[in-house]
Amino acid sequence: MSEPVRQTITVKNENGLHLVPCSLITRAATGFACQVEIHSATRKADAKNIFDLMGLGAACGTELTLIANGDGAADAIQKLVELFESGLEASSRRPNS
Question: What residue ranges do the domains of the chain occupy?
Answer without folding.
Answer: 5-85
